[in-house]
UniProtKB/TrEMBL annotation:
Domain DUF1731 span(s) in chain numbering: 272-306
Protein name per UniProt: DUF1731 domain-containing protein
Coiled coil: none
Family affiliation: Belongs to the NAD(P)-dependent epimerase/dehydratase family. SDR39U1 subfamily.
Domain NAD-dependent epimerase/dehydratase: 3-222
Length: 316
C-alpha cells in the first residue's frame, strides 16, 4: 500500500513510518521541514503540490498538530486548536479533489475527548464526552473543544469515496527518547515516580506495537467508520500504573507528589498538569468487538517489555 502520513515526523509518526516501511508499504511523510527521502513539504493549511501524493494513495493517516506537551497558555491552546483543525480540513480538501481518492482516512484524535471520571470506563458506545465536569479547572474544557473540533472537521469533509475513522488514542508507550514512556521512566529513575495528587486518576495507554497493529487493522477493514478508541483494555489508576513501572524497572521507591508539587514540576518542564491529573479511563470497545487481538493488553507485561527494550535486551 501507499500510505501518506501528514505530521509523521513526531513520536507516533516515527513509530508508524518504521513499522509500515518494514512491513513493505510505501510511506510518504508530509512535513513543514522535509529532511529525508520520501518527505514532502506542506504547510498544514493550504493545498499545494503535496496533494498529488494523496491522489492515488491507499491510506492517509493524519497526525499533524502542535504538541500538547506545553503550558496551556491561551496562545498555545489556540495553536493546538488551529494546527489540528486546519491540517484536517486541508487533508479533507486534498482527498475531495483527488481523481483516485484513498480508500481510508485515519484521522488522529485523542482519548482526552472523554470525561474526567473514575466511576466507569469510557468506550465509544457508552462513554461520556468531557467538558462539563464539575470541580476541574475551566481550561480543561478547551482540550475537549479541540478534540471535538478536530473530529468534526473530519466528519464534515466531503469525501464520499473514502472511509473515515477517528483514532481516539491514549498515551502511546514506546521505548524511544522523548516519548511519554521515556518521561515516566525518567521520573522512576530519579526516585520520583510515585502517586501524583493521590494517584486515583486513571491512565489510559497503548503499547507501540499494538498502536501499529491497530492502524493496520483499521486500514484493512472496510466496515469500520467513525470514532475508535486506541487504548489497551487495562487502564489503571496512576498510583498502580507507576507502582507497576517501578517494579518493572527495579526501582525501590517512588516519592509521592502533591498537586502543588506537580504544578511546580510541570511549570519547570514547560508542560501542563492536565496531562498528569486528568482521569482518562478509556477502553477499546469497538476494536475488541471487531476482533482485534492486543499483543500487550495488560500493563505489567507491557511495562516489562518496554523496559527490556529500553535496556537493549530485545530488539526495539
Ligand atoms: N504521542 C501520544 O501519546 C499521543 C496520544 C494521543 C494522541 N496523540 C496525537 O497524535 C498526533 C501525533 O502525536 P506525536 O506524539 O507524534 O506528536 P509530535 O511528536 O508533536 O508530532 C506532531 C507532528 O505534527 C506536526 N505539526 C506540529 N505543528 C504543526 C502545525 N502547526 N501545522 C502542521 N503540522 C504541525 C509536526 O510535523 P513537522 O514539524 O515535521 O511539520 C510534528 O512532527 C498529535 O496530534 C497528538 O496530539 C499523540
Amino acid at each position: 500500500m501507499k500510505i501518506v502520513i501528514p505530521g509523521g515526523t513526531g513520536q507516533v509518526g516515527t513509530i508508524l513510518r518504521q513499522a509500515l516501511t518494514t512491513a513493505g508499504h510505501e510511506v510518504v511523510i508530509l512535513t513543514r521541514r522535509p529532511t529525508r527521502d520520501r518527505e514532502v513539504r506542506w504547510d498544514g493549511e493550504t493545498l499545494g503540490p503535496w496533494a498529488e501524493e494523496i491522489d492515488g494513495s491507499d491510506v492517509v493517516v493524519n497526525l499533524a498538530g502542535r504538541s500538547v506537551n506545553c503550558r496551556y497558555t491561551p496562545a498555545n491552546l489556540r495553536a493546538m486548536m488551529d494546527s489540528r483543525v486546519r491540517s484536517t480540513r486541508v487533508v479533507g480538501e486534498a482527498i475531495a479533489a483527488a481523481a483516485r481518492p484513498p480508500r481510508a482516512w485515519l484521522q488522529m484524535s485523542t482519548a482526552t475527548i472523554y470525561s474526567h471520571r473514575f466511576d466507569a470506563p469510557n468506550d465509544e458506545a457508552t462513554g461520556v464526552l468531557g467538558g462539563t465536569e464539575p470541580g476541574v479547572p475551566g481550561y480543561w474544557a478547551y482540550s475537549i473543544d479541540i478534540a471535538r473540533a478536530w473530529e468534526r472537521t473530519q466528519e464534515e469533509a466531503d469525501t464520499p469515496h473514502t472511509r473515515k475513522v477517528s483514532l481516539r488514542t491514549a498515551m502511546v508507550m514506546s521505548p524511544d527518547r522523548g516519548g511519554v514512556f521515556d518521561a515516566l521512566l525518567r521520573m522512576v529513575r530519579l526516585g520520583l515516580g510515585g502517586p501524583v495528587a493521590g494517584g486515583a486518576q486513571y491512565m489510559s495507554w497503548i503499547h507501540d506495537h499494538d498502536l501499529v497493529a491497530a492502524v493496520e487493522f483499521l486500514a484493512d477493514r472496510d466496515d469500520l467508520t467513525g470514532p475508535v478508541n486506541l487504548a489497551a483494555p487495562d487502564p489503571l489508576p496512576q498510583r498502580s500504573f507507576m507502582r507497576v513501572l517501578r517494579a518493572a524497572w527495579g526501582a525501590p521507591v517512588g516519592l509521592p507528589a502533591t498537586k502543588w508539587m506537580a504544578e511546580a514540576g510541570a511549570f519547570v518542564l514547560r508542560s501542563d498538569t492536565e496531562l498528569l491529573l486528568k482521569s482518562r479511563r478509556v477502553v477499546p470497545g469497538r476494536l475488541l468487538e471487531a476482533g482485534f487481538a492486543f499483543a500487550h493488553p495488560r500493563w505489567p507485561e507491557a511495562a516489562a517489555d518496554l523496559v527490556r527494550r529500553v535496556r537493549g535486551d530485545t530488539p526495539a
